[in-house]
Design the sequence.
């Protein structure tokens, strides 16, 4: 069985823009759902709506893959599933190690979507000696002392970091030194890596803060709209309010 070490995706060599690469998983998810319902073809408009993008952008993205669909028919669902899976490197086995088996790491280990998307959790690694040998999702946890050997033995090129922030950079350095060239970082810190190593960061607190910003803005817009509907007081003309000398307002504006 092929491993991630010996087979790399060809997207960059084919000149596919990073923004397009980032959208390919969205298309694949939508197409997989259609495939599971035995839908044979789909129009660009229908697929774009399911993926949450506009149809013009979708057609442009697919042009990089060499797929243009058939006028009046649309795109062949099964072929697109294969084509996108191939471009993303999902038609082969990608062994992955997860480092840091706390609550988040254990949740990731129990996630059932890895295997169906071309990823195999090869090992779970933690620095706590008490965790060694403990099964999580049916996989025994191994100590970080074994990290380099585990990566070498399994041909791992993708590592997932779910450690506390303070340990993340050291773990990252060891992963890279052992041959890992792609890292998914769940630790709340920015990692420094050499050229040739790709890092994707997932920070749930940042996403929540962005949502909080939008909620605050919506609340402000609603308050402003409410203020605009409040009628001005009647029975008084502020323009005639005068001070003792008849020419200075009794209350100056702030």
Sequence:
């Amino acid at each position: 069985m092929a491993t991630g070490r010996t087979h790399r995706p060809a997207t960059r060599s084919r000149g596919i823009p990073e923004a397009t690469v980032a959208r390919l998983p969205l298309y694949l998810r939508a197409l997989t759902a259609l495939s599971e319902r035995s839908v044979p073809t789909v129009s660009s408009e229908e697929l774009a709506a399911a993926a949450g993008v506009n149809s013009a952008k979708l057609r442009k993205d697919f042009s990089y893959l060499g797929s243009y669909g058939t006028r009046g028919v649309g795109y062949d669902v099964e072929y697109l599933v294969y084509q996108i899976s191939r471009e993303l490197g999902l038609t082969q086995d990608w062994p992955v190690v997860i480092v840091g088996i706390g609550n988040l790491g254990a949740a990731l280990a129990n996630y059932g979507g890895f295997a169906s998307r071309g990823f195999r959790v090869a090992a779970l690694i933690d620095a706590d000696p008490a965790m060694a040998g403990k099964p999580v999702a049916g996989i025994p946890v191994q100590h970080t002392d074994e990290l380099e050997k585990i990566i070498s033995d399994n041909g791992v090129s993708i590592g997932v970091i779910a450690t506390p922030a303070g340990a993340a950079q050291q773990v990252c350095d060891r992963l890279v030194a052992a041959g890992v060239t792609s890292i998914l970082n769940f630790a709340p810190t920015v990692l420094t890596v050499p050229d040739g190593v790709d890092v994707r960061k997932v920070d749930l607190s940042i996403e929540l803060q962005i949502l909080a910003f939008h909620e605050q803005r919506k609340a402000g817009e609603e308050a402003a709209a409410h203020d605009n509907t409040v009628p001005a007081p009647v029975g008084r003309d502020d323009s005639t309010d005068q001070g003792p000398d008849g020419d200075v307002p009794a209350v100056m504006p702030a």
